[in-house]
């Protein structure tokens, strides 16, 4: 009788728990179809230096799922390693803040990213809502809010692309606190944001894939194939962002000038072309008016000429430029110094 009871238990108990719902990406029908997607995006991803930061780990393993099935640090690392595989296969150069269950301080994560020379920083996390087991959504975070000196639109561009494909891959929505699922880190820490986003020296986002405090989501997070799907969503979002292109700015005029209202020249390279309405140029934090800016379009690049509407004193000056391409993607932060020197013989 006892044996019979155990047998019944083994057969029926597992079937009582609902099978976690997830959908294999349609481009995973065969290993070849998966590879062909990676191959397609490699033309946009190749050569980009991506820093992946799996959150927590080592001594920091306190974030545990609602049914103790997963530790956030471990899931972050699994997703990060799969993301590294996809990006590496597509030709990106990938750096990691950790590849094992090791302790890495927030300061060291940022320092490692800076020293790696990475172009883009992606921190991978999973979210928690203590005391509320019903809440779960996907969110991708950027630093600060528009109008704040710490805000740069390129962070939000990357967040938008990753968020869209991640949410689709996981078949969950974003938070209703945000129209498109991207979130400012000021929502959590007003005027400060997250340490890694505030201090990153390159465009940076932080992904909170879903919640380990929801039982169904935690069950999904414990499935290896689901972790691959999470990484796939992030990979495709980032790849589509790079496909849309990032305008590259160069200051091609001299940086040592002798007049107080000099004309400076920028070259902007982008396959989709420059959105002329988007040009924002500041010298020493003062905006150059539109009627002091001219553009010339060439085949694969545009030239921007501009002259300040105020006199520049001799000494060092700071130039800040932001432009968007015709796909709506902003340039990365661009800041250069130039010098006004007194002409000899004056
Ligand atoms: Zn976390």
Automatic annotation (TrEMBL):
**Which catalytic reaction applies to this protein?**
Hydrolyzes the link between N-acetylmuramoyl residues and L-amino acid residues in certain cell-wall glycopeptides
Which superkingdom, per the lineage? Bacteria
Question: Among the entry's GO cellular component annotations, what is one?
Answer: outer membrane-bounded periplasmic space
What SMART domains has UniProt attached to this entry? Ami_3
EC code? 3.5.1.28
One MF term in the entry's GO annotations: N-acetylmuramoyl-L-alanine amidase activity
Which UniProt keyword terms apply here? Hydrolase
Known InterPro entries for this protein? Answer: MurNAc-LAA_cat (IPR002508), N-acetylmuramoyl_amidase_3 (IPR050695)
Domain MurNAc-LAA, chain residue ranges per copy: 110-239
Q: Per the UniProt entry, what is one GO biological process?
A: peptidoglycan catabolic process
CDD domains recorded: MurNAc-LAA (cd02696)
- What name does UniProt use for this protein? N-acetylmuramoyl-L-alanine amidase
